[in-house]
Amino acid sequence: MAAKNALLAKSPRQRTAPEAAPTAANLDRLIHERMRLGIVSALAANTSLTFNDLKKLLRTTDGNLSVHARKLEEAGYVACTKSFEGRMPKTEYALTDTGRKALEKYLNHMEALIQAMKK
Fold it and tell me: Model's pTM, two decimal places?
């Protein structure tokens, strides 16, 4: 009965579309947010970046970068290393293997959406 109700809840277009068809609803919401996508993209192109490098590159505030980087770190997408350079604190970020795979999956999904829209 639950399966029948789930089928009825779908619009006719949803029922006729193949189950494997990409949809925007299936995007990784953690990466899809603009600032977080910027962070993982910058880290994918670099071995690592400092907090200040990311802040300048993304043209954002300390607080904004800190909040988004922490979400990525909690998800295991980004590794954060804190150290000192002389007496100055240094925070460095690097993309983890999990983050690299998530970004690759996200980009493949976006490419599939683009291709599906061109048809």
Answer: 0.77
